[in-house]
Amino acid sequence: MDPQNIANLPSQPTENRVLKANHKTPAARYNIKVLRALQHTLKGSPEADLASLLPSTYSKKLQSFKDSAVHPSTSATGSFDSKPSFLDNDVRSRIDAADQSMTLVQLSSELNGLLQPHKDLSTGLVNLLANSEVLYESAWAASIMVFRVSENLVVKVTVDERSTLNEHRSLAYLQQHQHRFPAPRPHGVVRLGQFCLLFTSFIPGITLEKAWSRFDNMEKTAISNQLDTLVATLRLIPFPENTTLGGVLGGGCKDARRGIRLNSEPIFNVKQFEDFIFAGSETASPLYTNLLRSLMPSLPATCVFSHGDLRPANIMVCQREDGSWRIVGIIDWESSGFYPEYWDCVKATNNLTPREQVDWYSFLPDQISPHRYPTQWLVDRLWDRSMVNG
Questions:
Q1: I need a surface site. Which of 177, 243, 262, 356 has the fewest CB within 10 A?
Q2: For the whole model, what pTM was predicted?
Q3: For 301-339, what is each residue's pLDDT tens digit?
Q4: Whose CA is closest to 110, among 207, 188, 28?
Q5: What InterPro entries does the record tag this protein with (predicted)?
Q6: Is residue 34 domain-shared with residue 119, that is, in the same domain?
């Protein structure tokens, strides 16, 4: 609704007119971002002083967003006549039609159809993003944002080209080898300025992270069983002979904890992979390192296709008409590839702390449960404390 029309409305809504809250204004989005940051802090420190957590410039900045909100006009093609205003930590504030663009992976015909009305790729991408809906943004900084650009397509915007390409390759590989698996379909990759844009199909529903508290134990068990079946399906994809571990098509190995480590030399087997993991400390003594490693099972693990970050935030669910819940998609495949069979177990508990209250970890599927790989899981928990990225 145009702001001028809002100003002309009566002070009280009429019986047949309802004023809906607009959650997409700069001021509203700033409040939402501040609230998310507060919630993130309270999760780790429930007794924190909320007043002290608010930025000292909060009121001034909020008012500035209210006063200087820009509502640019658009042309017949949907292009903005002037660059729209976005929050400083919105990646769209750092993207411009003058930025150089390059197609890294061929775009689908559906995506090209959205971009065709514009004079060039950069302009098309900027306007597509400007008209999109924000689906995900981090609490404090927009290092990664996800937008819904059409009814069927979303785009993940990040500065990490390696992870972006790995995710696209994995989705294409998964579509080729398990085409019925519930995962996004890849639609291409573009570099725009300093950012990489990964386009995929939209997965409807809500994250398991948001839905979990609604479930009773029977529903939690049902979801766990569904995920167990999906992981087992992934493991049916054969590990090609004479192929390196890590991302498909030579994407390399990635160990994401608080920080990220990447291998510098090709890894062809589990022993070399564990060499890579146990070389990740600058403080542990050789004695301590060798002692922990000696606890690992002597029989090498098999290599399987792994997601690498199976947590509720990356699992999409929806409710059926009969009231039951089902998994409709697994998202965020940037850490996926061929890894030792225990790797998804280790990574599924990356965020587990001694103060954890959410009982998701009591319902981990058998395929990725610490009960299935107790030694590897416990050794990794100990070793994590010594790692440079732990």
A1: 356
A2: 0.80
A3: 999 999 999 999 999 999 999 999 999 999 999 999 999
A4: 188
A5: AGP_Transferase (IPR051678), Aminoglycoside_PTrfase (IPR002575), Kinase-like_dom_sf (IPR011009)
A6: no
